[in-house]
Amino acid sequence: MSTNKATTVKLLDMKREKRNIVMLTAYDYPTARVAEEGGVDMILVGDSLGMVVLGYDSTLPVTVDDMIHHTKAVTRGAKETMIVTDLPFLSYHISTPEAVRNAGRLIQEGFADAVKLEGGREVIEQVRAIVRAGIPVVGHLGLQPQMVNQLGGYKVQGKDFAGAQRILEDAKLLEEAGCFALVLECVPTKLAQLISESLSIPTIGIGAGDGCDGQVLVIHDMLGITDRYLPKFAKKYAELNVAMTDSVRAYAGEVRDGVFPGPEHGFKMSDEVLQKVKEENGLA
Ligand code: KIV
């Protein structure tokens, strides 16, 4: 293992030293290479995979096998970066032993370093059991996309007293249960800051403002790879979708016009060999 690879202990140090943690999603070998070369601290193989890569409307259809398949590619592409993989919908809800088994598969078959799961008090038993098995766990509170049908949409969470109180309590429970980091998604900036100050483990925000100990974005959003709806909290650092579509259009045009391939893209053979093939086949 590289000495630069983040560990759970290094991340705690980063929080104590007030160094912001950078996390980014990746789903395959090339995005993992880009994330690692770009110098992120952690890669998340998020179940957002379902929406940005597999074309589903939500994360719900994503399976453990999907996550393993993509995590394997990511771990091959980013050997020096901590890789966290999402436990997908229903893979940790049915029973605690099943949650441990699925978390273990992401580690043993996908080669992830840690797993992430959504929820608070209702998944505490599963978190404890996974941690007991020696698997580092990241929690996820606020907007939980796997609960989209129950929440009635992708909405900011914790704006009223009861909601804010529940998220703060759940954050403390997850820390006590052994999570080494906590993703806060779509919660008010001031609540995220309060939670971050109340915990000794780092918080990693997405749509949770600048008071978190780190930030995470979906790589397809920040690179502008898709033309899907961009959430308010995401920032686009490039418009790769435009560059990619223009490039495909240019390629299609050149093939149709006979411009590509040029002589420089082909391979040579000797005239003697060609002549012999022609003669052999009655084509001379
Ligand atoms: O699946 C994902 O990409 C996530 C991030 C939005 C935190 O869970």
Automatic annotation (TrEMBL):
Domain of life: Bacteria
Enzyme Commission number, as recorded: 2.1.2.11
Pathway as given in its UniProt record: Cofactor biosynthesis; (R)-pantothenate biosynthesis; (R)-pantoate from 3-methyl-2-oxobutanoate: step 1/2
Molecular functions per Gene Ontology: 3-methyl-2-oxobutanoate hydroxymethyltransferase activity
Keywords attached to this entry: Cytoplasm, Magnesium, Metal-binding, Pantothenate biosynthesis, Transferase
Active site: residue positions: 185
EC class: transferase
Keyword DNA damage: no
Catalytic activity: (6R)-5,10-methylene-5,6,7,8-tetrahydrofolate + 3-methyl-2-oxobutanoate + H2O = 2-dehydropantoate + (6S)-5,6,7,8-tetrahydrofolate
Signal peptide interval: none
Cofactor section: Mg(2+)
Binding site for 3-methyl-2-oxobutanoate: 47-48, 86, 116
Main location: cytoplasm
InterPro entries from the UniProt entry: Pantoate_hydroxy_MeTrfase, Pyrv/PenolPyrv_kinase-like_dom, Pyrv_kinase-like_dom_sf
UniProt: Mg(2+) binding residues: 47, 86, 118
Location in or out of the cell: Cytoplasm
Record note on cofactor: Binds 1 Mg(2+) ion per subunit.
The protein's assembly and partners: Homodecamer; pentamer of dimers.
Stored PANTHER family: 3-METHYL-2-OXOBUTANOATE HYDROXYMETHYLTRANSFERASE (PTHR20881)
Family: Belongs to the PanB family.
UniProt function note: Catalyzes the reversible reaction in which hydroxymethyl group from 5,10-methylenetetrahydrofolate is transferred onto alpha-ketoisovalerate to form ketopantoate.
Name under which the protein is recorded: 3-methyl-2-oxobutanoate hydroxymethyltransferase
Organism, scientific name: Tumebacillus lacus
